[in-house]
Design goal:
heterodimer, A: 232 residues, alpha+beta, Ubiquitin-like (UB roll), Fumarate Reductase Iron-sulfur Protein, Chain B, domain 2, 2 domains, 5-stranded mixed beta sheet, two-stranded antiparallel sheet, 8 helices, 31% helix, B: 129 residues, mainly alpha
């Protein structure tokens, strides 16, 4: 089928502001948006810049705004979108070039919630065992691939870039609710501040955007409740 | 391993927690109080009955004065706190944020006192109600 791609482009060496360029590609309805981008880059305009790596929805490189919603280009089929497709870089980050945005600040926010196992006990000889119920408590939030589709769909993050954002909260949840972890109190201390969990306005954009179908708003509400019942 | 300088610093106060909880509780209470208020002022009474004498008669009872004070206080603080959160969203300079937030609460407090003063100092003139 014939598809018209409107791609928001920006070259910092040449452009004052971003502009939209339209490309026509011939593609199967069962192809993915990434295939359409590859067609443009490989056969029409080699200057088009975007990130992609595994191309199978796991590395989190190619999150972008497709027809107004944040999605992974490698997981979105052309037939879901129709013949007119608009593609823009993620909102709220600095654009480096075309669809490539600067993730440095995103990873700073991610690191600020201590997204690693904290355990002060002596290292055991064997693995730390967990019951299936204990594992279930944080199973959903282990699925995050750090693509930033959630954080860049979050209106409070758009206006306040110091808000830790949904992705960092998801990864805090993954360890706070892990029975083997002992850093919950430290993380809740960080998340109880003005730029922490209370900045969430329950907009649900993150949950809608997540390509891994993580129930992000639910995870954030679980953190809120934990802070509330620990502190009050 | 606490991220970079731009990452949020830990804070020990529970202010944002209480603010969040207050918004939920006051929101739920306001819904009930406002529905009763609207029912009395606009549904059960024909509009031509709602006049000075009607208000004076209502405020003859301390119950309705307190009711109106709670409605004013909750509604006003709920609204102002909402504005504070929006200001936190958009004003990133600490100086401006502090100045404007202080101004917001100062104006809010003055208007709250004026409103409360009206509710409690009101005296029905002789013959009214």
């Amino acid at each position: 089928m014939k598809v018209e791609l409107s791609i928001k482009r920006f070259d910092p060496d040449q452009d004052e502001a971003s502009h939209t360029e339209v490309y026509g590609v011939e593609i199967e309805p069962t192809d993915r948006v990434l295939d359409a981008l590859n067609q443009v880059k490989w056969y029409q305009d080699g200057t088009l810049t975007y990130r992609r790596s595994c191309a199978h929805g796991i590395c989190g490189s190619d999150a972008m705004r497709i027809n107004g919603l944040n999605r992974l280009a490698c997981k979105t089929l052309i037939k879901e979108l129709g013949s007119k497709i608009s593609i823009e870089p993620l909102l709220g980050f600095t654009v480096i070039k075309d669809l490539m945005v600067d993730f440095d600040h995103f990873f700073d926010l991610y690191k600020s919630v201590k997204p690693y196992l904290i355990n002060y006990d002596p290292t055991p000889a064997k693995e730390r065992l967990q019951s299936p119920e204990q594992r279930e408590a944080f199973d959903d939030t282990t699925k995050c691939i750090l693509c930033a589709a959630c954080t860049t769909s979050c209106p409070p993050f758009w206006s306040d870039p110091n808000f830790v954002g949904p992705a960092a909260l998801v990864n805090a949840h993954r360890f706070i609710f892990d029975s083997r972890d002992q850093g919950g109190a430290e993380r809740l201390e960080i998340l109880n501040g003005r730029e922490g969990v209370w900045r969430c306005r329950t907009v649900f954009n993150c949950t809608q955007a997540c390509p891994r179908d993580i129930k992000i708003t639910k995870a954030i509400e679980q953190i809120k409740r934990l802070v509330l019942f620990n502190r009050v | 391993m606490l991220g970079s300088a731009s990452s949020p610093r830990p804070r020990t106060t529970n202010f944002e927690l209480w603010s969040w909880l207050f918004m939920r509780v006051s929101g739920a209470l306001l819904l009930i109080l406002l529905l009763i208020h609207l029912a009395i002022m606009h549904v059960t009474q024909p509009i031509e009955n709602v006049n000075f004498a009607f208000v004076a008669a209502r405020w003859a009872s301390p119950l309705w004065r307190w009711y109106d004070l709670v409605l004013l206080g909750l509604g006003w603080v709920h609204g102002l706190n909402g504005v504070r959160v929006v200001m936190d969203d958009w004003i990133h300079s600490p100086g401006w944020r502090l100045t404007l937030t202080a101004l917001l609460w100062l104006i809010g407090f003055i208007l709250l006192v004026i409103g409360a003063q009206v509710i409690f100092s009101f005296q029905a003139p002789a013959g009214a109600g």
